[in-house]
Amino acid sequence: MAATEYALSSLVLLLSLPYLASFSTFVQNHLLKRCTIDSYRLSPKSYALVTGASDGIGKGIAHELVRRGFNVIIHGRNRQKLEGVKRELETLGKGTDVRLLVADAGEEHVDWAGIENELEGLEITVLVNNAGGMPIPSVSFDAQSISSIEAGVRLNALFPVHLTHLLLGRMRSLPGPTAVLFTGSIASELPPPYMAAYACSKSFLQTLARSLSFDERRMLHSRVEVHYVQTANVKSHNGVHESSSWDTPDAESYGRAVVRIVGCKTREVCPWWVHAVQRWTVYSMGEWMAESVMLMAMPKAKGE
Asked: Which residue in 47, 48, 180, 273 has the most C-beta neighbors within 10 A?
Protein backbone atom coordinates (compact mmCIF):
# COMPACT_ATOMS: atom_id res chain seq x y z
CA MET A 1 0.00 0.00 0.00
CA ALA A 2 2.83 2.35 0.87
CA ALA A 3 4.46 1.69 -2.50
CA THR A 4 1.19 2.49 -4.31
CA GLU A 5 0.73 5.74 -2.37
CA TYR A 6 4.34 6.69 -3.10
CA ALA A 7 3.85 6.00 -6.82
CA LEU A 8 0.61 8.02 -6.94
CA SER A 9 2.21 10.93 -5.06
CA SER A 10 5.15 10.89 -7.45
CA LEU A 11 2.80 10.87 -10.44
CA VAL A 12 0.81 13.83 -9.08
CA LEU A 13 4.04 15.75 -8.49
CA LEU A 14 5.28 14.93 -11.98
CA LEU A 15 2.02 16.08 -13.58
CA SER A 16 2.10 19.27 -11.50
CA LEU A 17 5.60 20.31 -12.59
CA PRO A 18 4.50 22.19 -15.76
CA TYR A 19 1.94 24.17 -13.74
CA LEU A 20 4.49 24.95 -11.01
CA ALA A 21 6.98 26.10 -13.65
CA SER A 22 4.33 28.27 -15.28
CA PHE A 23 3.40 29.83 -11.93
CA SER A 24 7.06 30.48 -11.12
CA THR A 25 7.54 32.23 -14.48
CA PHE A 26 4.41 34.32 -13.87
CA VAL A 27 5.67 35.47 -10.46
CA GLN A 28 9.13 36.25 -11.80
CA ASN A 29 7.96 38.19 -14.86
CA HIS A 30 5.04 40.10 -13.34
CA LEU A 31 5.90 40.55 -9.67
CA LEU A 32 9.68 40.36 -9.24
CA LYS A 33 11.33 41.49 -12.48
CA ARG A 34 12.63 45.04 -12.74
CA CYS A 35 12.86 46.78 -16.09
CA THR A 36 16.25 46.14 -17.72
CA ILE A 37 15.66 47.93 -21.04
CA ASP A 38 18.41 50.45 -20.19
CA SER A 39 21.02 47.71 -20.64
CA TYR A 40 20.03 47.53 -24.33
CA ARG A 41 20.85 51.21 -24.85
CA LEU A 42 24.53 50.66 -25.53
CA SER A 43 25.37 54.28 -26.34
CA PRO A 44 23.70 57.64 -27.03
CA LYS A 45 23.53 56.48 -30.65
CA SER A 46 21.45 53.36 -29.93
CA TYR A 47 18.20 53.02 -31.86
CA ALA A 48 15.09 50.91 -31.46
CA LEU A 49 13.23 50.04 -34.67
CA VAL A 50 9.48 49.56 -34.20
CA THR A 51 7.38 48.41 -37.14
CA GLY A 52 3.69 49.26 -37.37
CA ALA A 53 4.32 52.31 -35.16
CA SER A 54 1.89 54.80 -36.69
CA ASP A 55 -0.83 53.68 -34.25
CA GLY A 56 -1.80 51.11 -31.63
CA ILE A 57 0.68 48.83 -29.89
CA GLY A 58 3.64 49.91 -32.02
CA LYS A 59 3.06 53.56 -31.20
CA GLY A 60 2.70 52.70 -27.50
CA ILE A 61 6.01 50.79 -27.54
CA ALA A 62 7.75 53.66 -29.34
CA HIS A 63 6.47 56.13 -26.73
CA GLU A 64 7.88 54.06 -23.89
CA LEU A 65 11.25 53.52 -25.60
CA VAL A 66 11.62 57.28 -26.10
CA ARG A 67 10.77 57.84 -22.43
CA ARG A 68 13.59 55.40 -21.65
CA GLY A 69 16.09 57.41 -23.69
CA PHE A 70 16.20 55.51 -26.97
CA ASN A 71 16.45 57.02 -30.40
CA VAL A 72 13.75 55.39 -32.50
CA ILE A 73 13.01 54.44 -36.08
CA ILE A 74 9.26 54.22 -36.57
CA HIS A 75 7.89 52.23 -39.48
CA GLY A 76 4.54 52.46 -41.22
CA ARG A 77 3.03 52.75 -44.67
CA ASN A 78 1.47 56.21 -44.22
CA ARG A 79 4.08 58.97 -44.12
CA GLN A 80 1.61 61.60 -42.95
CA LYS A 81 0.59 59.55 -39.90
CA LEU A 82 4.24 58.77 -39.13
CA GLU A 83 5.11 62.47 -39.28
CA GLY A 84 2.44 63.12 -36.64
CA VAL A 85 3.85 60.38 -34.39
CA LYS A 86 7.36 61.75 -34.92
CA ARG A 87 6.28 65.16 -33.62
CA GLU A 88 4.75 63.53 -30.54
CA LEU A 89 7.91 61.54 -29.83
CA GLU A 90 10.23 64.51 -30.31
CA THR A 91 8.14 66.48 -27.80
CA LEU A 92 8.20 63.55 -25.39
CA GLY A 93 11.98 63.02 -25.55
CA LYS A 94 14.01 66.19 -25.94
CA GLY A 95 17.10 65.54 -28.06
CA THR A 96 15.78 62.18 -29.25
CA ASP A 97 16.48 61.32 -32.88
CA VAL A 98 13.29 60.02 -34.50
CA ARG A 99 13.55 58.62 -38.02
CA LEU A 100 10.89 57.34 -40.38
CA LEU A 101 10.85 54.12 -42.35
CA VAL A 102 7.99 54.17 -44.85
CA ALA A 103 7.08 50.86 -46.47
CA ASP A 104 3.92 48.83 -47.06
CA ALA A 105 4.66 45.59 -45.21
CA GLY A 106 1.85 43.79 -47.03
CA GLU A 107 2.86 44.57 -50.59
CA GLU A 108 4.44 41.95 -52.83
CA HIS A 109 7.60 43.81 -53.81
CA VAL A 110 9.15 45.62 -50.84
CA ASP A 111 12.24 47.70 -51.64
CA TRP A 112 14.60 45.83 -49.34
CA ALA A 113 17.69 47.36 -50.92
CA GLY A 114 16.28 50.81 -50.16
CA ILE A 115 15.46 49.82 -46.57
CA GLU A 116 18.98 48.44 -46.10
CA ASN A 117 20.43 51.74 -47.31
CA GLU A 118 18.22 53.74 -44.94
CA LEU A 119 19.32 51.67 -41.94
CA GLU A 120 22.98 51.45 -42.90
CA GLY A 121 25.33 52.57 -40.14
CA LEU A 122 22.69 52.85 -37.42
CA GLU A 123 23.28 51.12 -34.07
CA ILE A 124 20.01 49.22 -33.83
CA THR A 125 19.89 47.38 -30.51
CA VAL A 126 16.15 46.65 -30.24
CA LEU A 127 13.97 45.39 -33.11
CA VAL A 128 10.23 45.19 -32.50
CA ASN A 129 8.46 43.28 -35.28
CA ASN A 130 5.01 44.63 -34.54
CA ALA A 131 3.43 45.37 -37.95
CA GLY A 132 0.54 43.01 -38.50
CA GLY A 133 -3.16 42.46 -38.28
CA MET A 134 -5.98 41.39 -40.56
CA PRO A 135 -9.67 42.29 -40.95
CA ILE A 136 -12.03 39.78 -39.38
CA PRO A 137 -13.44 37.78 -42.33
CA SER A 138 -17.11 36.87 -42.41
CA VAL A 139 -16.68 33.99 -44.88
CA SER A 140 -14.79 30.71 -44.85
CA PHE A 141 -11.16 30.41 -45.92
CA ASP A 142 -11.94 29.14 -49.41
CA ALA A 143 -14.37 32.02 -50.02
CA GLN A 144 -11.76 34.66 -49.17
CA SER A 145 -9.76 36.14 -52.03
CA ILE A 146 -6.33 34.61 -52.42
CA SER A 147 -4.86 38.10 -52.85
CA SER A 148 -6.09 39.17 -49.38
CA ILE A 149 -4.76 35.92 -47.86
CA GLU A 150 -1.35 36.41 -49.47
CA ALA A 151 -1.21 40.06 -48.37
CA GLY A 152 -2.01 39.01 -44.80
CA VAL A 153 0.75 36.38 -44.79
CA ARG A 154 3.24 38.89 -46.21
CA LEU A 155 2.30 41.46 -43.57
CA ASN A 156 2.24 39.15 -40.56
CA ALA A 157 4.99 36.67 -41.42
CA LEU A 158 7.20 37.49 -44.40
CA PHE A 159 7.93 41.15 -43.61
CA PRO A 160 9.30 40.36 -40.11
CA VAL A 161 11.30 37.45 -41.58
CA HIS A 162 13.00 39.72 -44.12
CA LEU A 163 13.64 42.53 -41.64
CA THR A 164 15.06 40.20 -38.98
CA HIS A 165 17.23 38.49 -41.59
CA LEU A 166 18.54 41.91 -42.62
CA LEU A 167 19.43 43.11 -39.12
CA LEU A 168 20.20 40.04 -37.00
CA GLY A 169 23.87 39.70 -37.90
CA ARG A 170 24.50 43.39 -37.27
CA MET A 171 22.78 43.21 -33.89
CA ARG A 172 24.74 40.11 -32.90
CA SER A 173 28.04 41.86 -33.63
CA LEU A 174 27.35 44.77 -31.26
CA PRO A 175 29.32 44.85 -27.96
CA GLY A 176 26.34 44.35 -25.67
CA PRO A 177 22.88 42.80 -25.32
CA THR A 178 20.32 43.32 -28.08
CA ALA A 179 16.71 42.23 -28.41
CA VAL A 180 14.42 40.99 -31.20
CA LEU A 181 10.70 40.96 -30.46
CA PHE A 182 7.84 39.47 -32.45
CA THR A 183 4.34 40.67 -31.56
CA GLY A 184 2.25 37.53 -31.43
CA SER A 185 -1.39 36.73 -30.87
CA ILE A 186 -3.41 34.29 -28.81
CA ALA A 187 -4.83 33.35 -32.24
CA SER A 188 -1.66 31.30 -32.80
CA GLU A 189 -2.93 28.88 -30.12
CA LEU A 190 -6.69 29.37 -30.35
CA PRO A 191 -7.60 30.46 -33.91
CA PRO A 192 -10.74 32.62 -34.24
CA PRO A 193 -13.34 31.64 -36.85
CA TYR A 194 -12.33 32.13 -40.48
CA MET A 195 -8.92 33.61 -39.53
CA ALA A 196 -6.72 30.73 -40.65
CA ALA A 197 -4.32 32.97 -42.61
CA TYR A 198 -3.76 35.27 -39.65
CA ALA A 199 -3.52 32.46 -37.10
CA CYS A 200 -1.00 30.43 -39.09
CA SER A 201 1.11 33.56 -39.71
CA LYS A 202 1.35 34.17 -35.95
CA SER A 203 2.12 30.49 -35.37
CA PHE A 204 4.92 30.89 -37.91
CA LEU A 205 6.36 33.78 -35.87
CA GLN A 206 6.03 31.73 -32.70
CA THR A 207 8.14 28.93 -34.17
CA LEU A 208 10.56 31.40 -35.76
CA ALA A 209 11.16 33.02 -32.35
CA ARG A 210 11.74 29.63 -30.76
CA SER A 211 14.23 28.59 -33.46
CA LEU A 212 16.13 31.88 -33.40
CA SER A 213 16.28 31.87 -29.62
CA PHE A 214 17.72 28.35 -29.64
CA ASP A 215 20.33 29.30 -32.24
CA GLU A 216 21.41 32.49 -30.48
CA ARG A 217 21.59 30.95 -26.99
CA ARG A 218 22.82 27.43 -27.58
CA MET A 219 24.67 27.46 -30.90
CA LEU A 220 26.06 30.97 -31.32
CA HIS A 221 26.24 31.93 -27.61
CA SER A 222 25.30 35.46 -28.55
CA ARG A 223 23.72 38.22 -26.48
CA VAL A 224 20.67 38.53 -28.71
CA GLU A 225 17.50 38.06 -26.67
CA VAL A 226 14.50 36.81 -28.68
CA HIS A 227 10.93 37.19 -27.42
CA TYR A 228 7.60 36.11 -28.83
CA VAL A 229 5.18 38.60 -27.26
CA GLN A 230 1.91 36.74 -26.76
CA THR A 231 -0.92 39.26 -27.04
CA ALA A 232 -4.67 39.09 -26.44
CA ASN A 233 -7.12 42.02 -26.44
CA VAL A 234 -5.67 45.53 -26.64
CA LYS A 235 -7.73 48.69 -27.16
CA SER A 236 -7.72 49.68 -30.82
CA HIS A 237 -9.37 52.09 -33.23
CA ASN A 238 -10.31 49.51 -35.86
CA GLY A 239 -13.73 48.68 -34.50
CA VAL A 240 -12.68 45.51 -32.64
CA HIS A 241 -11.73 46.60 -29.10
CA GLU A 242 -12.66 50.26 -28.70
CA SER A 243 -12.65 50.54 -24.89
CA SER A 244 -10.05 49.58 -22.30
CA SER A 245 -10.68 47.41 -19.25
CA TRP A 246 -8.81 45.14 -16.86
CA ASP A 247 -8.28 42.55 -19.62
CA THR A 248 -8.05 45.03 -22.52
CA PRO A 249 -5.31 47.61 -21.83
CA ASP A 250 -4.90 50.73 -23.90
CA ALA A 251 -1.97 50.74 -26.32
CA GLU A 252 0.29 52.96 -24.20
CA SER A 253 -0.16 50.81 -21.08
CA TYR A 254 0.49 47.70 -23.12
CA GLY A 255 3.56 49.33 -24.70
CA ARG A 256 4.98 50.01 -21.23
CA ALA A 257 4.37 46.38 -20.26
CA VAL A 258 6.15 45.12 -23.39
CA VAL A 259 9.22 47.29 -22.79
CA ARG A 260 9.37 46.30 -19.13
CA ILE A 261 9.43 42.58 -19.86
CA VAL A 262 12.31 42.68 -22.39
CA GLY A 263 15.26 40.68 -21.09
CA CYS A 264 13.23 38.44 -18.77
CA LYS A 265 15.00 35.30 -20.11
CA THR A 266 11.65 33.79 -21.09
CA ARG A 267 11.20 33.30 -24.82
CA GLU A 268 7.40 33.46 -24.91
CA VAL A 269 6.08 36.28 -22.78
CA CYS A 270 2.66 37.71 -21.92
CA PRO A 271 3.44 41.33 -20.94
CA TRP A 272 -0.09 41.92 -19.60
CA TRP A 273 -0.67 39.71 -16.55
CA VAL A 274 -4.34 39.11 -17.34
CA HIS A 275 -3.37 37.75 -20.75
CA ALA A 276 -0.99 35.33 -19.03
CA VAL A 277 -3.86 34.05 -16.89
CA GLN A 278 -6.12 33.78 -19.93
CA ARG A 279 -3.48 31.81 -21.80
CA TRP A 280 -3.04 29.41 -18.88
CA THR A 281 -6.81 28.96 -18.76
CA VAL A 282 -6.93 28.12 -22.48
CA TYR A 283 -4.26 25.47 -21.98
CA SER A 284 -6.14 24.01 -19.01
CA MET A 285 -9.54 23.54 -20.67
CA GLY A 286 -10.24 21.05 -23.41
CA GLU A 287 -10.20 22.05 -27.06
CA TRP A 288 -13.97 21.96 -27.46
CA MET A 289 -14.53 24.15 -24.40
CA ALA A 290 -11.80 26.60 -25.48
CA GLU A 291 -13.40 26.91 -28.91
CA SER A 292 -16.81 27.50 -27.34
CA VAL A 293 -15.39 30.31 -25.18
CA MET A 294 -13.76 31.80 -28.28
CA LEU A 295 -17.09 31.79 -30.14
CA MET A 296 -18.82 33.56 -27.28
CA ALA A 297 -16.07 36.16 -26.91
CA MET A 298 -15.49 36.80 -30.61
CA PRO A 299 -15.96 40.53 -31.32
CA LYS A 300 -17.85 41.76 -34.34
CA ALA A 301 -16.39 44.27 -36.76
CA LYS A 302 -18.41 47.39 -37.43
CA GLY A 303 -21.06 46.99 -40.07
CA GLU A 304 -21.56 43.26 -39.52
From this structure: 48
